[in-house]
Structure formats: structure tokens, C-alpha cells
Specification:
Blueprint lengths: L6 H42 L2 E5 L2 E4 L3 H7 L2 H32 L6 H9 L6 H16 L10 H29 L3 H9 L4 H12 L1 H16 L3 H6 L5 E3 L5 E3 L4 H9 L7 H32 L1
Antiparallel strand pairs: 1-2, 3-4
Helix pairs in contact: 2-12, 3-6, 3-9, 4-6, 6-9, 7-8, 9-12, 11-12
Length: about 300
């Protein structure tokens, strides 16, 4: 007996062939843009970190000297530990508050859609605008006590934390809401039947099922905190500063990205190579911290 050919299957295979042939044409522009916009500048910057240069076309190879100067720069070391402390504080505050808000807004309260919009709106405002706005707000409050946001290291730190939380909580809230809405209803019903209260259900059922959202939010919070620049520039500009015994100055609210920026655009053009070496070290640190965090939280997902 002769088998009848499935005409629809044959037609679908014929239709896929032109698409597969045209696939490189669609992929090529994206690949070219990625290479021009990221790969080439990254490799060029990596090369210049081993050079002394005033412009990218005029350079002199000096090896690891820039990295030695960067590691021994007290302002860079201070900015690193300051950024680590800032990242840890904002990591816990943003994710705890964002999860709490998301949990409340998924309990069927009235006006939840309006509240979601209101909490998300700060994320749409640019960092420079936020920085100057909060700078005026803090100065209006601190002016009553004879100080300002750029005169107090303590208030400068907590000012950055408050600004970061105010901007990021709404964005992380949306991710947590998506995770909470994906929790299987049958598991929640089973926990209720077994006599679990809301607190037990939250810890034993809800949070384990929201671990993918926790992974994403902790990664974004960590990387955004380490890369913070425009808010830091607009709110405190790294001030106040202290003079070191060797005559150098350390800006007490200056984070890593701002420290690299100021090093590069300082009056001494020979420091550009040092700034480029700092940028490479900065990239390595952020990449390593992000990968470690992803691996640690993804293990939790596998265990659930």
C-alpha cells in the first residue's frame, strides 16, 4: 500500500527553509551593533588600561603600572568598601520592602492597580533628576540643624540609600508580583487544608516558589547598587572630603563609578590610564559578585 503524504507537513517544511536561509541576514545587524557598541570599546579599554595615554590614538605601553597605582589609591579602596556597604544595605532593604509591597498588593485589596502604578512611577524618572530633587528635599530638612547633605558623611550615605530604595522598590515589586501570581493555587489550598497559618504558608510555600523572582531581583539590586553613578553625582558629588596624611583627599560619599569618572577627568591627563585600570577592576568585581550571587540563589531554586 502506498502511504499518503501529509501535505501540511510538507508545506510547513518548505516554508521554514526560506526563514532558515534568511536567519543570518536578520542576525547580522544585531551582531554588528553588539560588536561595535560593546565588544570593540571593551577590548580597546582593556588595552588602554596597560597604557599611558591622553587620547585613544596616542598611547605608550607601560604594562601593569596603572593597576599598581589603582590598587594603592586610597580613594579607590575607600570607594570600594563604601560601595560594598551601600550594596549590602540596599540589597536587604529594597528586596524586603519590594516583596512586602508585592505581597500586600496580591491579596485582593481595592485599588491595587493604582498602587502598583504609583510605586512604579519613580523608576521612570532619570537618576540626575532624582538626585537633585532629593538633594533639595534633604537640604530643606537638614538646614534646620545647620548642616546639609554634602556636609555630613552619615546623611550622605543614608540619603543615597533612601534615594535608591525610592527608585528601585517599585521595579522590583513588579517582578515579585509576577512571581507571587505564579504560585500554584493547589499548593496554597493544600497548605490551608493542612492547617498552616499565613506565616507558615508564606515561608514554606510562597517564598520557595518565588525563588526565581528573588534571584532576578537580588541580581539587579546588587549590580545596580555597584554601578550607581548619576544619583551619586547629583545628590552628593562625593562630598564631604577628608585630607589624608600624604596630602591626598578622600571623598567620603564617593562610590566606585564616580571615583573612576573623577579620576579619568582630573586635571592630570596621565591619570586616564589609572582610571581605565580601575574600570577594568570594577568590571571584574561586579561580574564576579553577580555570578556568585546567581549561583547561590539558583541552588535554592533547584532544591525547592
Amino acid at each position: 500500500m502506498k502511504r499518503k503524504h501529509d501535505g501540511s507537513a510538507v508545506n510547513s517544511r518548505l516554508l521554514r527553509r526560506p526563514i532558515q536561509r534568511c536567519f543570518p541576514i536578520f542576525l547580522l545587524p544585531m551582531t554588528a551593533a553588539f560588536c561595535i557598541g560593546f565588544v570593540y570599546p571593551f577590548l580597546k579599554g582593556l588595552f588602554l588600561s596597560f597604557c599611558k595615554f591622553k587620547t585613544t590614538s596616542k598611547w605608550t605601553w607601560i604594562g601593569l603600572d596603572n593597576y599598581v597605582r589603582a590598587i594603592h589609591d586610597s580613594s579607590f579602596v575607600y570607594s570600594f568598601w563604601y560601595t560594598v556597604l551601600f550594596a549590602l544595605v540596599t540589597l536587604f532593604l529594597i528586596n524586603i520592602l519590594a516583596f512586602a509591597v508585592a505581597y500586600v498588593l496580591t491579596q485582593g485589596i481595592k485599588g491595587s492597580n493604582l498602587f502598583r502604578t504609583v510605586f512604579f512611577m519613580p523608576n521612570l524618572i532619570g537618576g540626575i533628576v532624582l538626585g537633585y530633587t532629593w538633594s533639595m528635599l534633604f537640604d530643606g530638612f537638614l538646614g534646620r540643624y545647620g548642616t546639609s547633605i554634602i556636609m555630613s558623611t552619615k546623611w550622605g550615605f543614608w540619603g543615597l540609600v533612601i534615594l535608591m530604595c525610592w527608585q528601585q522598590i517599585g521595579y522590583m515589586m513588579i517582578i515579585y508580583i509576577a512571581g507571587l501570581q505564579a504560585v500554584p493555587e493547589d499548593m496554597l489550598e493544600a497548605a490551608k487544608i493542612d492547617g498552616a497559618n499565613k506565616w507558615q504558608t508564606l515561608w514554606k510555600v510562597t517564598i520557595p516558589n518565588v525563588m526565581p523572582s528573588i534571584t532576578i531581583c537580588t541580581f539587579l539590586t546588587l549590580t545596580n547598587s555597584f554601578k550607581l553613578f548619576d544619583q551619586n553625582l547629583a545628590l552628593t558629588d562625593g562630598l564631604p572630603f577628608i585630607i589624608q596624611p600624604d596630602g591626598s583627599s578622600v571623598h567620603t560619599t564617593e562610590m566606585l563609578a564616580l571615583n573612576i569618572y573623577k579620576t579619568f577627568y582630573s586635571q592630570n591627563s596621565s591619570s586616564r590610564g589609572t582610571a581605565q585600570a580601575k574600570a577594568v577592576l570594577f568590571f571584574i568585581m561586579v561580574a564576579c559578585i553577580g555570578l556568585i550571587q546567581l549561583r547561590a540563589t539558583r541552588k535554592k531554586e533547584v532544591q525547592q
